[in-house]
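Appendix B. Chain record.
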Amino acid sequence: MEVKRFNESHLDEVHSFYCGPEPYSKPLSDWIKAPVSNPQSALHSIRHRQTTAWLYYTEGGDLAGYGSLALARANLAPRSDPSADVAVIPMLALRFDLRGKPEGPKEMRYSRRIMRHVIEEAAHRLATRYIVLVVDRRNFRAHRLYREFGFKAFRATYHGDYEYIKMRRRIIRSRGTSIVAMRIPVEPGQLRTAFVLGRTTVVRVHRSFPHPPGSWLCQEEATRYYFDLHESEIGEFVGPAAQENAESRGN
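Structure tokens predicted for this chain:
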């Protein structure tokens, strides 16, 4: 999935972006298309609110959706004091006709891949403990997606007649990095590779792992069932030969 950092030169590419007929979908479509002069636009947020936005493309080169990330101060819980810096997802959207696509394991759908990238960027770029987003209460598809990635509701807020839910999750880091997604090994207890912020590390799966072989995990699930091995245990891990060596040590 190709990723491009969004800027004003991409306006022609997003001019027809459409993420659905629902009332809560229109602001998502408009946000990425509006000019910088519009305060409710991605370009305005990029220029004035320290926001970063990305465009995501299918394997065929078509625009699939977008994601964004910013740093803000937010009171994370009703009794928390003082406020803390948090990573915020201002807007995230998928093209309407790509909902549920591509067919196959849901972990490889475009919506999940976009979420994984944004969470990875938050862990890599921002030294915060939490990542926060706001979702329209009526947007049940988004609610399911965010819960799948470990987000939990912590407060309701209102804008006019509409209710929105604030959701947060901890940014889980391992030795200064964050496990975003990893392939399940064939058998519990085996050593396998995991992609951790663009690099490869070695992990061992817990024997209590409940998922079938060949699945992909989001960060929350991966961190629950895996742990990093120290380099002193496995040596330098850099390729297939080293993988075979590491696995032979673990069996």
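Further analysis of this model is presented in Appendix C.
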